[in-house]
Amino acid sequence: MKIVEVSGLDEYRDIISKYSKWMVIISADWCKPCQKVKIFYEDYFNKMDDESKIIIKINYDNLDEFEDLFEVNKIPLFISIFNNNVLKKIQTTDEDKLNDLFNDFCGKTSILDNINEDF
């Protein structure tokens, strides 16, 4: 899955015009928790072969241009979006929570979700 970093609102709008589902990750180079999860999400999404979705990274230091779109209290912040509607927004470094968010975003379910309890 493609991961791109944008620095301006026009670039962001140009990219999202080509997709119906995307995830925004807001972080900063100086943020230690952000750097901790960066390895996790890059590894996760680089393994995905899905060109129908995109991951858009926004540097917190460039956030002024995006303040009308995103309310950011803490970073790292992960926002899953479908057709311009926020599906889920979480601020976390917990890899289990991120894995659940990423699986939902990618349409993957846990094998446990498919177990028939009647057998």
Which characteristics define this entry?
single chain, 119 residues, alpha/beta, Glutaredoxin, globular
Q: How many domains in all?
A: 1
**CATH level-1 class:** Alpha Beta
Rg to the nearest angstrom?
15 Å
Distance between the termini: 37 Å
* Strand elements, count: 5
Q: What would you call the structural class?
A: alpha/beta
Question: Topology of this protein?
Answer:
Layout lengths: L1 E5 L2 H8 L4 E7 L4 H15 L6 E7 L17 E6 L2 E7 L3 H12 L13
What can you tell me about this protein's structure?
The chain has three helices and five strands; from the N terminus they run βαβαβββα. It is of the alpha/beta class. It has a single domain, classed as Glutaredoxin. Strands 1-3-2-4-5 form a five-stranded mixed sheet, with helices on both faces. It starts with a strand and ends in a 13-residue tail after the last helix.
Task: Provide a brief overview of the structure.
The protein is of the alpha/beta class and 119 residues long. The chain has helices at residues 9-16, 32-46, 95-106; strands at residues 2-6, 21-27, 53-59, 77-82, 85-91. Strands 1-3-2-4-5 form a 5-stranded mixed β-sheet, with helices on both faces.
